[in-house]
Amino acid sequence: MRAVGLMVHGGPEVLEVVDVEAVTAGPGQIRIQNFAAAVNPTDIVARDGTRAKLQSQFPPPYVPGMDAAGIVDQVGEGVSTGIKLGDRVMAMVVPKASHGAYREQLVLNQYAVVPAPANTTHLQASTLPMNALTARLSLDLLELSPGQVLAVTGGPGAYGGYVIELAKAAGLTVIADSSESDRALLETLGADVVVARGEGFAERIREHFPDGVDGVADGALLNDKAIPAVKDGGAFTAIRGFRGEPQRDIRFTETWVTQYNERYDLLDALRQQTEQGQLTLRVADVVPPERAGDAHQRLAAGGTRGRIVIDFT
């Protein structure tokens, strides 16, 4: 059974099509015939050796990937979520050794697998789970109320775009940074105010909100540079494990999406919001498994809007 994996860590060129053993759904598990796997920045970290120590206890190949979409082809005993054979589904995958989303067949806990949004392709559905769950977690950690103001960094990206849309659905006012070429995109996603990207993010935010904003969701890894945008007693959350030094009664949290692993309720709610038109699925490009390395190279170069997807059909 085909997968895209690596035998040694390194650059995009180490990714190759490998053969892995077929798997069988056990009690409480679902097997997916996986047709689409979105390529995310976290996959680059899994490939380049940053997490090599975590993987070293397992033999290669190491298979990255956190987003999958396909068809259910086996249901284990005791599955109670209503998912059945032949259903179109999507899932977030937490990779471990050869168990990542870059493979044709996946066995997952039943609570990780939800129906794919109606009227979407497998390619489109694969762009939703991990990034939207990350955005959902960031907003939950910030604990903002309708009418409050959220600043988002990295708005044009997949995570940032979902943060903007989920925030608007929750009744928040959103201000985000962007290059001029992405301004129209952010306005389409729902940003109320768009400021220029680059140095001076916090100063530009305070030009519009002099006391600062109620919360910041930092998807662009501005880290310390974004903290001055938050008002005293506000909230700040960031991806990749950054947590600011205590100051001005700001509540700092770290957004680790694995906290929402196997949360059927949350992922299915995101499915429903997609069907209601509140979330936009963006496929930047499609590549075959043999060109997964090209997808990693392009993603690392920056400027990708939406997600490049590996097509296993």
Number of strands: 15
| Main sheet specs | 7 strands, mixed
| Class based on secondary structure composition and strand pairing | alpha/beta
Taking pLDDT < 50 over at least 5 consecutive residues as the criterion, the unreliable ranges are: none
Q: Please give the alpha-carbon distance between the first and last residues.
A: 13 Å
Mean of pLDDT: 97
Radius of gyration: 19 Å
User: In the residues, how many domains can be counted?
Assistant: 2
Could you explain how this protein is built, in words?
- The protein is an alpha/beta fold and 313 residues long.
- 25% of the residues lie in helices and 27% in strands.
- It contains 9 helices and 15 strands.
- The strands form 3 sheets. Strands 3, 4, 5, 6, 7, 14 and 15 form a 7-stranded mixed sheet that branches. A 6-stranded parallel sheet has the order 10-9-8-11-12-13, sandwiched between helices.
Topology:
Elements: E1 2-5, E2 16-19, E3 29-38, H1 41-48, H2 52-55, E4 67-75, E5 88-92, E6 105-109, E7 113-115, H3 122-125, H4 129-142, E8 149-153, H5 158-169, E9 173-178, H6 183-189, E10 193-196, H7 201-208, E11 213-218, E12 230-238, E13 251-254, H8 264-275, E14 283-287, H9 292-301, E15 307-311
Parallel strand pairs: 8-9, 8-11, 9-10, 11-12, 12-13, 14-15
Antiparallel strand pairs: 1-2, 3-4, 3-6, 3-15, 4-5, 5-7
Helix pairs in contact: 4-5
Distinctive features:
about 325 residues; alpha/beta; Quinone Oxidoreductase, Chain A, domain 1; Rossmann fold; 2 domains; 7-stranded mixed beta sheet; 6-stranded parallel beta sheet; 15 strands
